[in-house]
């Protein structure tokens, strides 16, 4: 019963989430150390599930704060 609930929950979440904004200050660094990653690989993983993924590398705290005003499901996060 618990396994069925978990699988149904995953399916519901997968159907709900359509777009992803991935924010990481090291998103486009060529150095693969210090938690850097491949933005292309991340985008491709989401694309395989039919999701659109935008990878954003902010330069300052004010860049990150601008994302607080994006409405999510009709709810403003600010």
Question: What does this protein look like?
Answer:
The longest helix has 15 residues, at 2-16. 37% of the residues lie in helices and 18% in strands. The protein contains three helices and four strands. A hairpin with a 2-residue loop joins strand 3 and strand 4 (75-76). The strands form two sheets. Strands 1-2 form a two-stranded parallel ribbon. The protein has helices spanning 2-16, 39-47, 61-65, and strands spanning 19-23, 52-56, 71-72, 75-76. The mean pLDDT is 78. 0% of the residues are buried. With 78 residues, the chain is of the alpha+beta class.
What's this entry about, in short?
The chain is built from three helices and four strands; from the N terminus they run H-E-H-E-H-E-E. The chain is an alpha+beta fold. A two-stranded parallel sheet has the order 1-2. The chain has a two-stranded antiparallel ribbon with strand order 3-4.
What descriptors fit this protein?
about 80 residues; two-stranded parallel ribbon; 3 helices; about 35% helix
Q: Estimate what percentage of residues fall within beta strands.
A: 15-25%
Helix and strand content put the structural class at alpha+beta
Largest sheet: 2 strands, parallel
- Strand tally is 4
Question: How much helicity do the residues have?
Answer: 25-40%
Q: Whole-number average pLDDT?
A: 78
How many helical stretches? Answer: 3
Please specify the SSE layout and strand pairing.
Layout lengths: L1 H15 L2 E5 L15 H9 L4 E5 L4 H5 L5 E2 L2 E2 L2
Parallel strand pairs: 1-2
Antiparallel strand pairs: 3-4
